[in-house]
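#dry-run=false #mode=assembly
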Amino acid sequence: MSDTINGGSTVVTPAGPDGRLGTCTADPPSPTTPVGAVVVTKVAGTVSAGYRVIERPTPGPGQLLIRPAYVGICGSDLEQLADHMPETFVINYPHVLGHEWSGEVVEVGPQVDDFEAGDRVIGHGDLGGNRWFGVTHDGAMAELFAVDGAVCLRLPAGMGLLSAALVEPFACVVEAIRKVGGVNAAHQVHVHGLGAIGLCAVIQAAITKASVVAIDPSHKRRELALSLGAELAVDPADTEAMTALAAGADVVVEASGAPPAQAAAVESGAADGRVLFMGVSVPRAVPARLGLIQQRNLTLTSSTGAPSGAWPSALRMLERHRVDLTPIVSTTFSFAECKEALARAADRGRETKVLLHP
Amino acid sequence: MSDTINGGSTVVTPAGPDGRLGTCTADPPSPTTPVGAVVVTKVAGTVSAGYRVIERPTPGPGQLLIRPAYVGICGSDLEQLADHMPETFVINYPHVLGHEWSGEVVEVGPQVDDFEAGDRVIGHGDLGGNRWFGVTHDGAMAELFAVDGAVCLRLPAGMGLLSAALVEPFACVVEAIRKVGGVNAAHQVHVHGLGAIGLCAVIQAAITKASVVAIDPSHKRRELALSLGAELAVDPADTEAMTALAAGADVVVEASGAPPAQAAAVESGAADGRVLFMGVSVPRAVPARLGLIQQRNLTLTSSTGAPSGAWPSALRMLERHRVDLTPIVSTTFSFAECKEALARAADRGRETKVLLHP
Amino acid sequence: MSDTINGGSTVVTPAGPDGRLGTCTADPPSPTTPVGAVVVTKVAGTVSAGYRVIERPTPGPGQLLIRPAYVGICGSDLEQLADHMPETFVINYPHVLGHEWSGEVVEVGPQVDDFEAGDRVIGHGDLGGNRWFGVTHDGAMAELFAVDGAVCLRLPAGMGLLSAALVEPFACVVEAIRKVGGVNAAHQVHVHGLGAIGLCAVIQAAITKASVVAIDPSHKRRELALSLGAELAVDPADTEAMTALAAGADVVVEASGAPPAQAAAVESGAADGRVLFMGVSVPRAVPARLGLIQQRNLTLTSSTGAPSGAWPSALRMLERHRVDLTPIVSTTFSFAECKEALARAADRGRETKVLLHP
Amino acid sequence: MSDTINGGSTVVTPAGPDGRLGTCTADPPSPTTPVGAVVVTKVAGTVSAGYRVIERPTPGPGQLLIRPAYVGICGSDLEQLADHMPETFVINYPHVLGHEWSGEVVEVGPQVDDFEAGDRVIGHGDLGGNRWFGVTHDGAMAELFAVDGAVCLRLPAGMGLLSAALVEPFACVVEAIRKVGGVNAAHQVHVHGLGAIGLCAVIQAAITKASVVAIDPSHKRRELALSLGAELAVDPADTEAMTALAAGADVVVEASGAPPAQAAAVESGAADGRVLFMGVSVPRAVPARLGLIQQRNLTLTSSTGAPSGAWPSALRMLERHRVDLTPIVSTTFSFAECKEALARAADRGRETKVLLHP
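#status=ok
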């Protein structure tokens, strides 16, 4: 027995109470074999995710059938499960979750010329017309999934599939840095908040040989930032060190969303400095010296997400600087362990990036 | 007896205790007649201004001899008298004060081809090499003064000398609006703080047929803003009205420098809004929702002063829209009444613009 | 007998050789009455347009059923008929042509809250996911058509339906002027090429009180530009007048696509000038003084099309300046006369804008 | 016998016909010893440069006395000798030439706190108020010269004095790249014209790991560009190779000023590409496909010179990437050989940068 998932997927077997699928297998599924997937449902106003068995998808015209290697849990996945997505997103429940993925092409659909089975690929999520892969429609947390070839990019030769699953946050930073006019070796850069976005900002500034200061309450994250190229790491509770940083940065990246960090980011800006607000949170009042904007001629602006054009730039930048993003991964789980994985990902103070795998 | 003023002026007769000059005359002074002037001195670390008699200046090569009509008191004049000027300004005490002026050419020096006696002119203050007319060197608050023709502009036919003395703050707003990409009839504009800069912002937005809301605690100033083109005027103490304005402005101009107004300016910004911080003050912490920058994709930036290129644009804009800036003037005094005038100008809550005349 | 049109429309009766439909009626068609439409087909590699009878469309969820008043013929319509559309557009033949339209809501589909029958509306063409109304999918040249409410805007009270059909080119200019930082009363503006885009540029600069020079070989168009606010109109064959214009414009709009006009547009630019290339054509070499870019610090850039966000700005600008765009219309035809209309529209030297009506 | 040089220098002994000074000595001159210098004079409308003996300069308040190591010959030096400087420059003849210099502090004047004898320094040329060191006033081509400490910067520890004399063109490129939004490892960069500016552009793009193509008719310069980081070097006469480059560059730098290279630079631009015109020349018509600007959404812009703010950025970038600019130097001469040096520098096809030394 099966019920239809919007977008064409069909749940074959509901999971047991533990979210595990008895018939799950590591072998490549045959055309008639069902596949395991992390499915989001909305029932009686309650959104939840669970491990389900769905029909094996078939790639349509222009589509690729992908066996994912890794799928990251994004902040927006957690927003969706908390039913906090902006109303502009029309979500087709139930659907397979996941849009930060890497994988291998298993099969190509009709009219696909530029990919072939065996290609290692990633993909951006913008399906056009406000349809988003893994957010409003079926995504990547399935043993096999179909996706438009038009949103996919082949990986450079030396790039691993684990690192590749982190390209999305790196591309978000590519776009953000582009918006503020670039970073180079002459710049002092402060990064407030060392989650996946903040760590990608540390890396992206450090590879240009900019001088980077990384700020986060977590000792472990600060150590990680230093290993990724930061020259200095500071605990925001260290008032003296924070005072010494004031007015020191040509480019500031606020990646935590925490109001006190937002206020500290303004203090960080040097004369003519540019302050990027990337951290997402419900706006809350915090004491801030807005007069610094006039006094130091600061520009405060924001950037959210990665447009499709930022993805090839991100890949090329990672390839040419031989950057490995895997240190950003804090934990991996199997699809079947999705409930535990999602709970862990929500512990943002502890996890930088939680990835799932089949 | 006389003592030399830096820049060539010479004080002939100190003024009496009331700041008035006994020999003052309205007749055009002969080449040997001394002239009355507002002179700033720094003695034993104390900066003060007073009415003095100085030697009649002679226009050097490329210079014009000007009889001023009106000279505005600028916030920076008050900063200088409070000895609060940034250290980057090297001030040559004693010097004649005043850089927001209009007047008539009395005589031209050698090598002047593009002006003649009788021309009605204004001038910007940038003398080059961080020398500023009326700020670091002799300025316009004298019955006659010499100034480089290179910084002067002839007035359009229909523009009065009183209105012309207000071009400087208008040019500051021209530059600020240019920096944020212009204002047009499709925009909603909020102006916080209705001093000279704020009122110029109201006018400049209103002439483009943008929809303007003017915000200030003073009833009188709000009425003035309405008469100058604002569609709505709001008291910031009116919480309900302020809440209704939130997220309503494509362009926000913060012209008060007051921290609560700075926080309110951020609340004003609509999605993709641009928020200009023009008000000058010592930065002080104020509760502000900085998270709005990310949530609404706001850009906060600043603009201070009018580069020389903004002056011809300001004149042309005023001419083509037939704008009269005189309603911005709140009080006028004679040079001899300079002490009272400066005291009144410091009462920013009450005065929009205090002007002096010979 | 009928054949299906991509998007759900169905041709009921092929038109006769004259392209006219015998059963055409002015009465509101009943749910079962077929409607006349301009349909583009591609048969054996040949693209052509003709008047056909199609099934009356039914508005789906979120859609409006519209009775169009006017539908403009756009340059891109002619490109499509010449089979010259860029390959990035996947066109679903056969389809109803037309995307520059105004009309009245006849009926609303399910889940439509913000429109009702009787509303006067226009709509932008971006359906999302590279689907374009009237270009890749069914459009507006039908006695009745269905369109997503999400792309529609209600007209301001005083705006006529004829003027409203011209909002699209006006919105293209809104976006272009935004990209170069705005136009105001201080600017000198040169417009090269006085088709619909060029005339919209003349209007948009003139309403800001910028000083506008209009340049076109056609005497009639130059007269039209003068009546729409240009201060001067010049024939590009008048070498002396063109020489006098050189280096005179702060903002230059090249709207013809003609290579000699492109070279003249560069000559037009004053110091720090911004030169906008809006005219579309196959790039051809023309002698041009590219060294002027360095010598005068020019910026040359382009803008094509109107993003959805430019449409409300255009409407608001037109409303607040009470602009009537109808003088731009050069000829109108009925849908049944589409072949003649399309031929006339292709005569770009003569026609500024050809409109169709039911 | 001596005649006064504008700015305070005094020629003690005119040079002989060969431009050499009989009494020239390598020993540090005593306070009363005259010094050899390259002096520009304008006599009867003819501008010329020669080696002269001038009075030893004395550092005034805020000034440093410098013994130069190297002084570059800039294109603007040649412009001045050809009497082709823009009229906006008011040149005080006679004056010592030279503004691209490195050297050592010999002595500091009164009120100098931030430099001391022995410091290795360079300096930008903007003296304020349109006064330019070595262009309108006395410059660096003298065995000893005085210069405002405010325009000087101390060299990083590892930077040689020969490399340091090349910072000026490098800073020009820093500013230009900033204006077009930065270059990074994701970019393809084409550089047309491999003089000092072009080679600095090659270096600056290559250190970011951008992919750089260098284009110049000179085999020797192309080889030099390859050694400095270009991945490919192309002769513009190689039509096939040039065709292969078309539409390939995200950032294009035109640094030759040659009209055919300007046209080729437009062809280089990829979709959304930015084309920088840095080469200076009298604008001359060249066949160019300006329609590419619209078709590929190119932005063409320019940048000339290095504002003072670009100099610390240039130094820091060179230090952090450990860049050695000395390969750009093509020839060095002594001050006494100035006539030969200036002739050689004018042979731009052969020389990339000619430097003088005491």
